[in-house]
Design a protein that fits this description.
Elements (H helix, E strand, L loop, with lengths): L1 E8 L2 E8 L2 E5 L1 E4 L11 H6 L5 E4 H6 L3 H6 L3 H5 L5 E4 L3 H5 L4 E3 L4 E4 L6 E4 L1 H11 L3 E3 L11 H24 L11 E6 L5 H14 L3 E4 L8 H12 L8 E3 L5 H9 L4 E4 L1 H7 L2 E4 L2 E4 L19 H5 L2 H9 L3 H27 L3 H12 L7
Helix pairs in contact: 7-8, 8-9, 10-15, 11-14, 13-14, 14-15
Length: 378
Amino acid sequence: MKFELLHTDGLARRGRLHTARGVIDTPVFMPVGTQATVKAMTPDELLAIDAQIILANTYHLHVRPGEQRIRSLGGLHAFCAWPRPILTDSGGFQVFSLAKLRRISDEGVYFQSHVDGTPLFLGPRESLNVQAALGSDIAMLFDECPPWPADEKHLRLAVERTVQWAQISREYLDAHADDPTWNMDRAHFAIVQGGSDENLRKECAERLIDIGFDGYAVGGVSVGEPEEHMFLAVGATTAHLPKDRPRYAMGLGMPHQILEMVALGIDMFDCVLPTRMARHGTAFTKNGMVNLTQSKFADDSGPIEEGCECYCCKKFSRAYIRHLLKSHEILGLRLVSIHNLYFYLNLMRQARLAIEQDRFRVFVERFNKEFCSSEMPE
């Protein structure tokens, strides 16, 4: 993997990430395909809106259908018919999200499967093994994601474990450098923890950089903290990351939040919101979020968003989409999913152009004025 930093506008970065399966222009939004599928979307539909890279989840695919089954079927790309890069999460977020079903130790995490209660274990080596079997292009290191709020003792312990597991991962990767069963074209990203404690963020980042990885992520955000704490954690991390490596803010966020984190120097984003909100009938537009199930749209012949070039907006009216949603027709949530993902990807295209033209801050201010001034949908 190679990362090119092409231009900067303040702290905002316009880059290009070269992988074996294609070039990724940054800043980039990555649709989430936890179970080897972006919900409600076919691969061809993702290609049509120019998704450059998607995500899949190590824990969930390990539980079902199992990484060895996927490997025997040609690997994750063949399994889900996706030709472009895939990033796999390490399973570390499930340390947070499945807190009632796990026990953490210094060696790793003991889980009870959320599907059938079967005991399983993930540690730094096990996570790398699963991701190697899947054949992803970017693999995340196993880490401990603490909740919010967490006291200083808990944050310190999470940082120590994250760094310790990163060192184990580094040694394990080096030991497999000549193993032909491992795809060593894969990039490996370490994850910086520390909550909103600026000193812990700095320490964790510096220790991970000393070990040495292909990229670095901001973890432990979007776990219930206020927005200002989120931005504090991101800014406190990016200030200490190398300029020649990609930076990834995990699991974020609303459109205005993503733009603010681009302004803080982040290159890569993912979030479930575009498809999750679509399944509830809510669309993202430049003028805010729209609940398409509202009765005022029953006779509305206009598209979800005037001027939008997505398939949904070029073909269908708000009235028709409302009818589908109210009738619980699958096509309704599929069409809103197409629109929402197109909205996020197009926002990143606009952000890249604004950075190239040294007008990113003006672009953000104009977007926020239109998007954030609207009321949240009912």
